[in-house]
Amino acid sequence: MRDVHVPDGFIDAPVSIAAGAVAVVGVGVALRGARRELDDRTAPLAGLTAAFVFAAQMLNFPVASGTSGHLLGGTLAAILVGPYTGVLCVSVVLLMQGLLFADGGLTALGVNITNMALVTVLVGYGLFRVLLRVLPKTRASVAGASFAAAVVSVPAAAVAFTLIYAAGGTTDVSVGKVAAAMIGVHVLIGIGEALITAVTVSSVLAVRPDLVYGARGMVKPLELRRAGADGSAEPSRA
After folding, report:
1. pTM for the full model?
2. How far is residue 221's CA from residue 210's CA, in Å, rounded to a whole number?
3. What domains does the chain contain, in order, with CATH numbers?
4. What is the pLDDT of residues 146-178, one digit of tens each?
5. Which residues 6+ apart lie within 8 Å of 141 measured at CB?
């Protein structure tokens, strides 16, 4: 497998049902929590974030010989629009991919949402917030925390998949081989995801820091300086 999209029949029915129940609960909690995160300014950004994650997941980048990966997007979405809304964005993307492109089976939708939405957001956003508590309140710190959080979130999703496979995998591949293949490759995929996440968050911070949920109130918009009539520098909001 080149990513953690799980196809139909790869996980047995009891474990798929259990993962589906976890996903339903998680999405239900996210629906309630998103009400506190979304407003007239951030709702459009949530739509753009979901569209960006959808498009980015369709593009694969090489990470090793014969292996490719793509953005998972949980950490990026959580930092931009909030953890609850981030879960919803990635969940909608996974549902659309399953319906329109058969990328991840519909019977495995609960497994995919658990791995790629719940785990990535919980691990990625949780680490992001912890790092911001100890780092200086600067744009560079936000970008660095975004990078580190995304790096960790991707192999975390691979670990979650491995545990699910150990509980209900239907193939004769050993858990050890699955773990070695998935976690090793996803460490490399995580680096690619981290670069995309850090660049995207930094770009939004540069023009509209008020729209980055994870850094709200931490950084101010860039200011341009123009010469006044007496030659002094006057601030001009970018």
Report:
1. 0.85
2. 8
3. 13-237 (1.10.1760.20)
4. 999 999 999 999 899 999 999 988 888 888 888
5. 131, 132, 135
